[in-house]
């Protein structure tokens, strides 16, 4: 959904996000919805300004979101509150799962297929009966050896088996009812600490505001992703929303509030290890990826939109390797490096520590503040041969060799650190031009208005000129291994005295072009798998449909009379579409569910889909189209005119996920990796597939460890942003939030003798820090399973550089990973807290006086 | 952009307060009293308009009037994507404000976005290339060209020494784990595209990550 579409919601649940403080301008659409009569609900461990402005505030203990959302699913199913016409037609609620499927209810927290030796699942018992279902998400296909491709041809033989009466014991509806049977309001209260009356008010308010006439939305942020079960928390929300019909409709959806200006863009056009641009999987040597044909066969779903993947993959290779990409050499496929495992940031830190990595580029990222187990990162940096930091002011990471914690403690000295460090000043917004992609896929161009001072350069300049120099260094090589860098197309025009590359020329390559004449392709439907088209990112096709026409520059908002989709303001991928899966805004016959909530509909006279947004469907496919299974249909031919979720292999929203998730087809409550509480629901304490790297210096606290009794969560501040340097050197924001603090409840403060603004020490097996206390009722003790559990919270945005300074919260946290994404846990771990100071810092303070 | 619209230029009591310099003390005091806004406010004139004016306030002009250039930008902090207008004079930014046309922010900005000018002009900003040699205790200034050539050489050396064409069993991998790259979420799509293309597609690096993961 578009950000502004939040204003059309009749109920908004903000959960895992403190939107008022961290996305204040997005919050204006929440207040607008409230003004129009919507009920606003905040579910969060901390009482914040978001809570203060909500109609209902529901407190929950950190890391118990699935228990809460699972309770919502149970309540919706058991009380028949779901939007039956929507969910029966558009989700897999009636699909029948393999006989061998076993649920955590009968296996004390584990699904069928678990291999304890490798802590991984085989997913064959999770499939639709008789089918092998491809995952629609490249990222998930790519993670593990055990998830190599399958025989997706089974999807072309006929539709997945269904029981529309929902009586079959292994249909998704019945499985979900059994799975969530014990997630009662009483259990929700026992696990989360949220009073059951408040919980019931939340679920009933959302259900009441869903259906034909009304829609509800969720907003979330890293409060949901930074857990060992992050993906499953979001999954639980998708189940709630799909059951209630809040997907693909005005004011309905799930709004991910992401943290950085183009964090969506850097996921789409990924500087990520496991994907090639726009969600194509990075080849993996342990899959059937030895040849392009093998890669395409094992990664391309046979049915649904993703069947087009070969066109996108070949066009990408053509964009990268140009004339050197020929049919004879598989379009240069062997130039693309192949994975052997997880190369995400957490294992990278280990690789630095272990001396595997020689050099490291830090391009606007500051892991000594932003990454967990900061001391590990620091040790890793000291093992590098060289480090290149590109930023606009000094960062903790660039200065680790003289101001790091190891130096501070006397555990290392600059004379012992061999790392060669470069600090290259970076140009900032306004000093360079290009596109950034916001959290709702809106790709907006920004102009160059002023000159970057001194030697400051854009990253485009840096990468382009580094590449140019490297191509020169490799120009005379006869080695086969240097073929890729030699073949790489790198002839971007430059301008001005500093030879700045033309960002629009790069955008034109991302958009794609016809190889023969260099003319832009207008849409990804024009891409081919025969080498006649080149395209750097198929989902961005159409952003420059004609030479000189840059749609991301477009600045024509809708007027007050609507329709409010603002199709003339910048470009939203794909195809300038503002709401994904908007075919679901119409019923099976193609009529809007209601006049009030109309968006897309079938125009019988014109014979096409039309409406207030760009339809997310084959424009001329009739609502009553049904696949002819006698012809073994592939691609979009295998999806009916009433299958809106076209990226899924059968066009249905997946309440139950047969393939792709490493930790189970249904969200299940596990305790955070570190918790003072035993899992009240299952014997299985934590996510059995969570990524753990236990080694000296990164030890974990066992459940109920009396040495670390407090739940610890981190957050950021309106004024100080993420890794912090830009806002910590900005005079106004630094003055508004000048110093780090830890939020402690008055009850815990009294228990521990902590005074407001007094010093405290926080410790874990990873490290200890000192910070002043903010004693506040914003933090409340929870009553969990009959006993009091205290929680404390601290902003993670501070460091040693800039005007606003303070302890680095991430020193306390361990390196762990979500099973699916390897995202670290920062929102629910355990620590100890005491009044007082660290001896060494106390001594220093005394000396300074 | 002028707040008072078309009638904002002239003083409501044109001429008052002018020409008093050089007159006698009495005239100067009378001039001052006439120009002083408080008596006029007490007399019931509009506090937010006419009675807020004085000969001093009349000379106040919005700084963006001095701009010789204005351009559209996007707020560089969170992912909401608020539109900004950046005003510059002689190649230097002098003012940043919310873009009133944007359906995202309709001219508003949060404290971070509103402070963008302070970031661009921060005294803490570093504008020269700094270099720290192995085991050195200090930074030294180097030229950009020297640094770029040295980084290119080090990159090539690290790649050449760590590149693997095949696994021991003969399967082709064509990759290196010897070099890593972190960052991208603060950058433009075009920049991310070139990073992945050069580091991944050109050099065979796999350790490429950004803030989207964390």
Written description of the protein model:
The complex is a heterodimer of chains A (849) and B (214). Chain A is α/β, with parallel strands linked by helices. In chain A, the strands form 11 sheets. A 6-stranded mixed β-sheet of chain A has the order 24-26-25-31-23-29. A 5-stranded parallel β-sheet of chain A has the order 3-2-1-6-7. Chain A has a 3-stranded parallel β-sheet with strand order 10-11-12, with no helix packed on it. The N and C termini of chain A lie far apart (56 Å). Helices cover 24% and strands 14% of the residues of chain A. Chain A contains 26 helices and 31 strands. The radius of gyration of chain A is 27 Å and the shape is globular. The longest helix of chain A is centred in the middle third of the chain and has 16 residues, at 459-474. Among the domains of chain A are: 3-256, Dimethylsulfoxide Reductase, domain 2; 350-422, no CATH class; 691-848, Barwin-like endoglucanases (Beta Barrel), CATH 2.40.40.20. In chain A, helix 4 (65-78) crosses helix 9 and helix 15 crosses helix 17 (374-383). In chain B, the strands form 3 sheets. Chain B has a 3-stranded antiparallel β-sheet with strand order 1-2-3. Chain B has a 3-stranded mixed β-sheet with strand order 6-7-8. Chain B is α+β, with helices and mostly antiparallel strands and 214 residues long. Classes of the chains: A alpha/beta (849), B alpha+beta (214). Chains A and B meet through helix 12, helix 15, strand 10, strand 11 and strand 12 of A and strand 1, strand 2, strand 3, helix 4 and helix 5 of B.
